[in-house]
Design brief:
10 helices; 313 residues; 18% strand; two-stranded antiparallel sheet; 7-stranded mixed β-sheet
Length: 313
Amino acid sequence: MSVSPIWRAKLELALAKLGLFIIPALPRCGVLLLARALAAGAWLVARRERSVGLANLDVAFGGTKTAAEKRAILRESFRTFALMMLDIFWFSKDIERRVARWVEQEASMEPLWQPRATVGITAHLGNWELLGQTVAMRGYPLASVVAPLANPTVDELFRRVRGTSGQDVIPQQGAVRQLLRALRAGGKIAILLDQNTLPGEGGVFVPFFGLPVPVSAAGALLGLKTGALFFFGFCLAQPDGHYRCISTGSFTPPADDSSAALEQLTRRIAAELEQVVRAHPGQWLWSYKRWKYIAPGTEPARYPFYAKPLPEN
């Protein structure tokens, strides 16, 4: 017997509230053990995500890694994601003390603390949620875009949890205007730029592991229009339960908002994210259908099994 949408929504909210009650009370070692257990269970039952992840690893690494190495990377990816989800709850309690105890910020993060408009670029790698909270807790309110959850009541609960650190969470609809306003006021914003954004929605096809994928040009556009600093930041999970915030670089592009400059900068962003994923493959969310759309003029056989042509307008 299937569960009705109304009861499913109530069950999801009840589970989220239960998690918010139980998980913050666990010791750090308990959170790590639970993350491993959840990841092991997901590995057994999430066959579709496992298939997608292995197909993505084939695209990214081909014959440069063995099948065993790719499976090990994907298992680590499952564990990293499970820990990230649990830590949304765990860091909601006594957040200042826990961030100070468990999150280290490397010297490479220093450019972010400059008093100037900044476009922070990150990916679904490590703990992107905690990265935003950590920055906000340094006294730099961060505006970030979050896709709404299907369940509005659970979405509102997560919004409140994310906001405990002072982070300004912006809904997707109308986000560009709000982000532009924040940058022009000298603020800092954060954007995840490793998701599919179709050309009709402001995306451009650029190489990612040698194969074109659609990437949102919003980050490049916002920076070029405001002269903001581009900053690449990531929060990497460590085996002992700590996190390490690092930056792989920052720069200010020349003033040029032409379509050619926009595409070139988006290419540079995608290339930088690729290098980070190569350096820390077990931290990235490989189960996401990153190569979902086949670029016009590209051989379809190069794409994974789930790829499909661009939808018609």
